[in-house]
Amino acid sequence: MLLAPSANRVYAGESTELAAAELTISAPFVAQVNPAQVAGVEYLSFESDELADEQLAVLARQSAALALFQREGELLRPVALPDCLNLSDDLVTIPKYPGKTNEQFTRLLLNVTVASIDTNLNPKAAQGPLAILDPLTGRGTTLMVAWMLGHHGYGVEGDAKSVEQMSAYLKTWLRRKRIKHTADMTPVRREGKSIGRRFDAKLVSEKLEMTVFTGDTRQSQYLYGKKKFDAIVTDAPYGIVHGAHQSSDVRGVAGKRDRSPAGLLGEALPIWASQLKAGGALGVSWNTYGLPREELAAMMVSNGLTPCEGPEWLRFGHRVDSSIHRDLMVAVKQEEKQ
Ligand SMILES: C[S@@+](CC[C@H](N)C(=O)[O-])C[C@H]1O[C@@H](n2cnc3c(N)ncnc32)[C@H](O)[C@@H]1O
Fold it and tell me: Is the CB of 325 within 6 Å of ligand 1?
């Protein structure tokens, strides 16, 4: 597999390592995944039997896949990858704003999370489309990647402006591409009081939906009511400052001194866990400066979620900049709490 050159811009030289871990987890039908040099160019090599169409589709969905070849002695024979995207990827590459989660990394996080859903407990998940929640939506990179890969996207975001900007962008993009859709921002009222706004959009022919509520992520269950999700995929605030505001990017811990991502995750995880279907998977990326892996794993366990384990899960840590070392963790809800 030849990797997209853009992957290296995201992971500063570690892209092959991350792509290898993603492939190992999300494509159990391949073996011996290793970096390989051919004529000075780096590839990811692996072994497999003859690939069925669904397996080729899994390879095409890899976040960094550019092209596939079959090795024949010294030669590489091209293998066509199917077009697996519902919508063209400029949907997620055009927006550029401070605090955006890189779209390629978002796709990787979504892929490894979805691959971890326990389909014995949630058999419907094998057929898709899945209901994916990003309870820290920002301007919706996860929800747009979910749409591209054929899933429904749901979100909650504390910054109402971000939701409006996402709504404006998505409407313009869909209109410009002449894709039949509906999209609206409407007020949300509970018990006679206005508590925020919601964005709802639908793709008419793909029958995919998207909803984002403005509000605190700890209100997510209150906002969504009984609705349960197949997977939660989210990039936690990094505990750093974006732009000119001299405060953390953790929102709404009103009256509390703890504005750390760890504090927010500690309060949000019980809510998020309750919104997962049995067998559902929660994938989170976070800044390990300030929250060690073991602590996050312990938080997952105390909320009834079992972190995925094995050497491949320890290969995702990478530097984003001098104040952010990002890692990811996926944990699975084994059963519904009684
Ligand atoms: C790392 S950013 C996610 C960016 C998003 N993936 C994107 O690409 O646009 C984290 C987001 O969490 C939001 N946030 C932080 N604390 C929150 C809270 N308590 N409730 C809801 N949203 C919150 C921030 O406003 C920010 O948009």
Answer: no
